């Protein structure tokens, strides 16, 4: 059925709830429990024999009871148990660098057996890092754990993106009340400024840059808050977690009883992150040599000769370093020096073209095939003209747990004949 009333209360046999939550769990341990739903909504179970549904969060969503999230072993775990403060030692220096590390881990949607929709399965930290890839929930819980380790007020947000696509991301609350969204799949950060729906039409309202549409709840290892504001649209929400008229908190004692060390759903201590075992310089050189060979073969098939400019290739390095610095630190540096060196290396009457691209794998052939799908890159690789000189530069940046960011730039210079 679909809900259209303002508040609906359904009496339910407590045995049904216990069958969902597991045997041997007393009511005092689960006074409230989040049940996963199609993410655009949330369902709060109250073990006093009734379920309170808030249709403002369930509009257009088919109501059904679903158990807490399963981990990779099929074990039901409260969502708060997937988080814990995680310190990276000396491997990651800043929260933004931690966000970059999470970003370069691969994205893979949770597999669904026999077809169907999105499977509600979350992966705990250790299996996620061992696989090196996971769904958006896995990225969000890892990033939130790292930000908690840096002493930030971090929470995982559960909601939707455009067109109602389920999504999770991370939120941090500053001591001054500033709200920042962290997208774990891209490493981007967005400052949240709520829109005032009651403001006069002539008042200029902030235009959100983030891709999030609605939010149903947020949580970390110690707290859980359900959104009970009139609208769950992110740009209209006020993130004052101390205001219970906007965010309904779960009992802290209840969370401790099921998520504290030694409880039935707690996870074993997490081992420290593994240091990078990759020689970045050697890996960069190996990929670059393979790419040069692939370019020569491709141009030979087109009956084109290939002449490499080693000096021009070397001059591309500062640009690749600047791109990674911008991704990991959020600041751009060195662009003026790069432009000046290129201007000096390209003679008068010649044209320079460059194409940078980023990967999170080290497969040179796969990267080359991707580059050829870009018309601009193909134009550089297949450049025809007078005094054509080609260049390619690869920079591999190593991160913990064998993760890496690979930057490649193809470039060419040639004499203009027009």
Automatic annotation (TrEMBL):
Signal sequence annotation: none
Domain of life of the source: Eukaryota
UniProt-listed Pfam families: CEP76_C, CEPT76_peptidase
Listed InterPro entries: CEP76, CEP76_C, CEPT76/DRC7_peptidase-like_dom, Papain-like_cys_pep_sf
Gene3D superfamilies: 3.10.620.30
Entry GO terms, CC: centriole
Domain Centrosomal protein of 76 kDa C-terminal, residue spans: 279-415
Keywords, comma-separated and alphabetical: Cytoplasm, Cytoskeleton
Keyword Isomerase applies: no
Chief site of localization: cytoplasm
Protein's name in the database: Centrosomal protein of 76 kDa-like
Biological process (GO), any one: regulation of centriole replication
Residue ranges of every copy of the CEP76/DRC7 peptidase-like domain listed in the record: 120-250
